[in-house]
Design goal:
Shape: globular
Order of helices and strands: EEHEEHHEEEEHEEEEHEEEEEHE
Radius of gyration: 19 Å
Helix content: 10-25%
Distance between the termini: 21 Å
Structural class: alpha+beta
Number of helices: 6
Length: 277
C-alpha cells in the first residue's frame, strides 16, 4: 500500500486529524486497471458533491497530481484506489478549522488485475440482516462519509452468518442496500432499486447501471421497498464500484431466479466498465 497526502508521499497521520476524532470527511473507492480508473467521472462527481455538502473546500486537483506521481513511480497501475477527504487538523471541539480539507490517496497494488480486463458476475447465497440502519440528516443522505460504524456492525453480523453480502433494512422497515453495495430487486417481473431518500450510499456502479438501463430503454423503478415485499422478491443482485454484479441464488430460505440477472448483465455489457486516464 502507498499513501499520499496532498500529492506528497507519507506514512503518518496527525493525532489531531478530525478524520480520526470525528469521522469528519468522505471517501470513494475505485478500481485501477491498466493505468486507468474505472468510472472516474462518477467518482469525481461524488467527491465534488460531498466536498460542497460538507464544506470541506478541498482542492480536488490534488487527486490528478497524485495519480501522475503514482504512474511515474509504478508505470502501469493495477489495483484499488481509495480517495479520502479529511477536514484535517483542527482545534478541540466541533467547530470547523479555517483551512481546506486534506486530500489523501491510498493505492493498493494488485498484479493479478492486469491479467483479466473483463468483469464477471458472482453468484452468492445471502440473507436479511437483523440489525437495521437509521435515517440520515438530509445533508448527509447518499454521501459516503468516513463514519461507517453502521456498516462495521452490519458486516460483523453478515460474517457471523457466512454471507459475503446481505440485505439491509432501516428502522422504518424499508429495504436500503447491502452492507457495502447497492441492490437491484425484481418483483412482479419489474426491476426496482431503493430510492435512497433517507439513507444509504448513492453508489457509482448503481448510477452506471441505471444509466445503461435507461439507454437500453429497460424500465427500472426507483421507490421505497418495504420489508413486507421481501417475500415477493424474484431476483436480486448487489453492485459496487469493485463488483458490478453479485447475483443472489438464495435469500435465506428463498430460492431466487438468477437468470434475469445474468441476462441483464449481458445486455448491459457489465463485463466492460468505462475507464478514464
Amino acid at each position: 500500500m502507498q499513501c499520499y497526502k496532498n500529492a506528497k508521499p507519507t506514512e503518518q497521520i496527525h493525532v489531531l486529524d478530525r478524520a480520526f476524532h470525528y469521522g469528519d470527511g468522505c471517501f470513494s473507492t475505485a478500481r485501477f486497471r491498466q493505468n486507468q480508473i474505472e468510472l472516474f467521472d462518477r467518482h469525481l462527481a461524488r467527491l465534488q458533491y460531498a466536498n460542497r455538502q460538507l464544506s470541506l473546500n478541498a482542492n480536488l486537483e490534488l487527486i490528478t497530481e497524485t495519480l501522475t506521481l503514482l504512474k511515474q513511480a509504478h508505470g502501469e497501475l493495477n489495483g484499488t484506489l481509495k480517495i479520502v477527504l479529511s477536514r484535517g487538523v483542527g482545534q478541540r471541539g466541533y467547530s470547523l478549522p479555517d483551512h481546506p480539507a486534506d486530500v489523501w490517496v491510498f493505492f493498493y497494488p494488485q498484479v493479478q488485475a492486469a491479467l483479466d480486463t473483463a468483469y464477471h458476475y458472482d453468484i452468492i447465497q445471502s440473507g436479511i440482516l437483523a440489525q437495521a440502519i437509521g435515517l440520515s440528516m438530509p445533508n448527509l443522505v447518499g454521501l459516503k462519509s468516513l463514519n461507517r460504524l453502521e456498516q462495521v456492525l452490519l458486516k460483523q453480523e453478515a460474517d457471523q452468518k457466512g454471507w459475503t453480502e446481505a440485505l439491509v433494512t432501516d428502522v422504518q422497515g424499508s429495504v436500503v442496500e447491502g452492507v457495502s453495495s447497492n441492490c437491484f430487486i425484481r418483483i412482479n417481473n419489474t426491476w426496482i432499486t431503493p430510492q435512497l431518500g433517507y439513507n444509504g450510499v448513492h453508489g457509482v456502479m448503481r448510477a452506471e447501471i441505471l444509466s445503461r438501463m435507461q439507454q437500453q430503454r429497460l424500465h427500472c423503478e426507483q421507490r421505497d421497498i418495504h420489508a413486507s415485499e421481501i417475500a415477493q422478491i424474484q431476483s436480486l443482485f448487489f453492485c459496487n464500484a469493485l463488483t458490478p454484479m453479485k447475483i443472489v441464488s438464495h435469500l435465506g430460505q428463498q430460492v431466487l431466479d438468477v437468470q434475469p440477472c445474468v441476462e441483464l448483465f449481458k445486455q448491459l455489457q457489465l463485463n466492460q466498465i468505462h475507464s478514464y486516464v
